[in-house]
């Protein structure tokens, strides 16, 4: 069967992205760096070749517009980010931008003109590993960053400021310092972010795509500590120990028990202790550990569940202090509220899947996305996941072009209802 020209074009763009940012064993596209710059140039060229109107704002957001019938109506916006983590995969973020351009190519080829403009965005700097700021690029475009951000945020690999990197790429940090914006949420009809799934749910379900119900909110504690007392491993009996490792293990068991109960009750929750370590200057095989540092990452679509976990953390800290003589300090929390996806847009995507004959799942997104920025500003927002084997943020990302084509069929069948 002859491949759809839009899908063939998308495959060539993915190949070009990989070649331009290859950093074995994966790809690296640093925010406001050479890899991201190359990715934006590749998408600009692809957009210009199919006749889209292309422009870049002062913070580097790439806008590629397919004109609609009523150009003064708020547009439908499709997009995602084009940066990538160090030695990561080729599809995280980029799949959403490429799909937007592929959709525009198909609409143009089929002679379909939407009632309003279709704008495809290539957003900057979504990956927090480069600059310590959530959704930096989309927040910058909406004028949401603190005015001091260009001068206080430093890129983790270079140590240089955001302002220095922006100027090096030809952009204007004063745009952020002055609180200016290139995007206005009141002037966006809807925002759609196609994205690879970053877990195994679609692979295990045997389905090519999913309509996202919402983006999990999170409660993160990056700098937790349990403090007990260092002691001799052979000389102190169990009752006399203030063992920090066993204290945090007890906390982990309590959290997992709550998680299991939440799952059995049909509530959405994931819990992770991503870091767990004793001080190498102090620990040893013959010492009772007196201090443990750890991290907590708690995510749920349900704000009540997040509140319940927060209460559990307080109660468990108090219990452990009494039972084990170990004090637990969770440090300052980093809360991010959940974002429900727009019901009308979700319905339109389901209708599109039915019309295209593509079976889809409905599921939550465990990871955060630029869609959170749009939804948080009141823009009707939806996400479409594409099956992806091998996980994400690693070189093993393995989105199949047949699944990309199926998701594109869903979007093409839904876009008329979305733009109406």
Describe the overall structure.
Keywords: Hydrolase, Manganese, Metal-binding. Belongs to the peptidase M20 family. With 420 residues, the chain is of the alpha+beta class. The protein has two domains: 293 residues, Aminopeptidase (3-Layer(aba) Sandwich); 120 residues, Alpha-Beta Plaits (2-Layer Sandwich), CATH 3.30.70. It is built from 13 helices and 20 strands. The strands form four sheets. Strands 3, 4, 5, 7, 8, 9, 18, 19 and 20 form a nine-stranded mixed β-sheet that branches. Strands 10, 12, 13, 15, 16 and 17 form a six-stranded antiparallel β-sheet that branches. α1 runs antiparallel to α2 and α1 packs antiparallel against α3.
Give a short overview.
It contains 13 helices and 20 strands. It has 420 residues and is an alpha+beta fold. Its cofactor is Mn(2+).
Uncertain spans:
none
Inertia-based shape? globular
CATH topology annotation of the largest domain: Aminopeptidase
Distance between the termini: 33 Å
What labels would you give this structure?
2 domains; Peptidase_M20; hydrolase activity; 6-stranded antiparallel beta sheet; globular; 13 helices; 420 residues; 38% helix; manganese; Alpha-Beta Plaits; 9-stranded mixed beta sheet; Aminopeptidase; alpha+beta; single chain
């Amino acid at each position: 069967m002859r491949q759809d020209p839009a899908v063939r074009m998308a495959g060539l763009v993915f190949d070009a992205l990989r070649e331009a940012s290859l950093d074995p064993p994966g790809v690296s596209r640093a925010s406001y760096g050479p890899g991201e710059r190359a990715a934006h140039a590749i998408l600009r060229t692809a957009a210009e070749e199919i006749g889209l109107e292309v422009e870049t704002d002062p913070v580097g957001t790439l806008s590629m517009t397919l004109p609609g019938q009523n150009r003064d109506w708020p547009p439908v916006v499709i997009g995602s980010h084009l940066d990538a983590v160090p030695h990561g995969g080729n599809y995280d973020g980029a799949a959403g931008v490429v799909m937007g351009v592929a959709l525009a190519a198909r609409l143009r080829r089929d002679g379909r003109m939407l009632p309003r403009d279709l704008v495809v965005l290539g957003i900057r700097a979504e990956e927090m590993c480069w600059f310590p700021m959530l959704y930096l690029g989309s927040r910058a475009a909406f004028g949401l960053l603190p005015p001091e951000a260009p001068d206080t945020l430093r890129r983790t690999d270079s140590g240089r400021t955001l302002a220095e990197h922006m100027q090096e790429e030809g952009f204007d940090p004063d745009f952020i310092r002055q609180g200016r914006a290139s995007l206005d949420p009141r002037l966006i009809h809807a925002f759609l972010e196609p994205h690879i799934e970053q877990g195994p749910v679609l692979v295990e379900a045997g389905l090519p795509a999913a309509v996202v119900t919402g983006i999990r909110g999170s409660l993160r504690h990056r700098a937790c500590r349990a403090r007990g007392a260092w002691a001799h491993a052979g000389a102190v009996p169990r009752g006399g120990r203030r063992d920090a490792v066993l204290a945090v293990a007890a906390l982990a068991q309590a959290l997992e028990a709550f998680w299991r109960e939440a799952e059995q009750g049909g509530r959405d929750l994931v819990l992770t202790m991503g870091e767990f370590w004793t001080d190498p200057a102090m620990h040893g095989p013959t010492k009772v550990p007196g201090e443990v540092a750890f991290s907590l990452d708690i995510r749920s679509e349900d704000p009540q569940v997040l509140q319940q976990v927060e209460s559990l953390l307080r109660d468990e800290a108090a219990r452990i202090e009494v039972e084990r003589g170990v004090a637990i300090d969770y440090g300052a929390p980093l809360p991010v509220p959940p974002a429900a996806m727009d019901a009308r847009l979700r319905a339109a995507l389901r209708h599109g899947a039915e019309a295209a004959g593509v079976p889809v799942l409905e599921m939550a997104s465990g990871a955060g996305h630029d869609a959170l920025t749009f939804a948080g500003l009141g823009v009707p927002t939806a996400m479409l996941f594409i099956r992806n084997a091998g996980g994400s943020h690693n070189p093993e990302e393995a989105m199949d072009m047949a699944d990309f084509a199926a998701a594109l069929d869903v979007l093409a069948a839904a876009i008329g209802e979305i733009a109406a």
